[in-house]
Amino acid sequence: MNLTDKAWEKLFERYNILQEIEKNGFYEIEAKTIKEEREPRLMAKFDHSSNLPKLFKKNGLSILPISRSKYVIGQFDVYQKVTYNQKIKPTQVSFPSDITTIDPTNLYSESSALHCAVITGMIEDVLGEEAFQTVSGKMSSKKFDFNIRTKKGNDLKINVTNSQVEIDGGYESANQFMIVEAKNEMVEDFLIRQLYYPYRLWQGKTYKEVRPVFFTYSNDIFSFFIFEFTDPMRYNSLKLVEQKDYVIAHEEIELEDIIELVNTTKVQPEPQIAFPQADLFPRIVDLLGLLVENDLDRETITLNYDFDERQTYYYTTAGMYLGLIERYTDKETKKVMFTLSNKGREIMRKSFKQKYLSLAGCILAHEPFKQVLLEYIQNGAPPEKGRVVEIMRRCKLYNVNSDSTYERRAQTVSKWVEWILDLPNMY
Length: 427
Prior knowledge:
Helix 14 runs antiparallel to helix 17 (403-426). This protein has helices spanning 3-15, 17-24, 31-34, 40-43, 54-59, 110-119, 122-127, 193-203, 255-264, 281-293, 298-304, 309-321, 342-348, 352-364, 367-379, 385-393, 403-426, and strands spanning 26-30, 62-65, 70-74, 79-81, 91-93, 131-140, 143-149, 155-161, 164-173, 176-183, 189-191, 209-218, 221-229, 238-248, 296-297, 325-329, 336-340. The longest helix is centred in the C-terminal third of the chain and has 24 residues, at 403-426. Helix content is 40%, strand content 25%. The chain has a 7-stranded mixed sheet, with helices on both faces. This is Translation elongation factor. It comes from Parageobacillus caldoxylosilyticus NBRC 107762.
């Protein structure tokens, strides 16, 4: 268990929180009570369901702030699932040639990605009107109440008084005010509160239509999920209206580029690192992007991004297998830290096309992936799992012994090969 898990275990036991929730349907807890064990800001901010403490996951619980000094815990449905529509071809936008203070090949923070979305016209395209950024940062929610759905299917009324609200970007046009919650990674879900509390605040402050938008910048694609609350009094009335994707204009990747890469990439010996079990290669690209900004320890990755503990291990190990991530122990904190290797940092600085071809080259430098891709191209269809396992068995993989392990890892091989071949279609 991590420090947050241990702290909540103690608080639940000390204050009989589970029993109180069973009796009343919820439990209100003061920030000063949480602070008996750990700082509230570390104990009560879970942007994704994967970040929740073990005790919360086990009992179907979540937590919401109801003031600056109080929270409510209950079996609430607080997250919205995010499904990326892979059939959407991103709209290409031009980056202004006279802008020198934003590097479009280095947008590895949420704020820089949003600034880029403004200057390239994405924000105005989403709104359909000329728009200006008018709001960002922290503010007070004022006073309001709402109904929230519980895991048992009934509604519970919650009262909020001056809770802290944070908006990543607020954009006003002639008829609309768009509130944006931003993440610089692909996610499986997000905390509705991050849109709902600002929505309720600004609904009472402007006569214009308030548009809640969830935004992600992942794998160089800017995705806008445009929502509406069909009933402003209901937290769970969030409904997706439209998804719009954009990408900065670039030299396109062609199938011929992939074939040339296969022919020119030299295979290297298999490293003595666990063979990857991390099916979603775009998540590896996201992780590399996070490490451009800062070195991170395993707990920080798990608690602050949409990774659970197993995924953090799988994806950091996959990055190390490819030679893009390195691990070291911090002398002061004694924590195991992850950082980009020189090779990883060099690749993440490249232009769009060269970055993705270089990442594909890192994969194809490993015999199993190269052989599976060659067979895919030659036969015009993906090899069956049994054939992938057969190829892997010939490649002297490090510490892969059992049939079940080969089969699990074969899934990753197939998925990474699909990612390479899909590059011309994605972009």
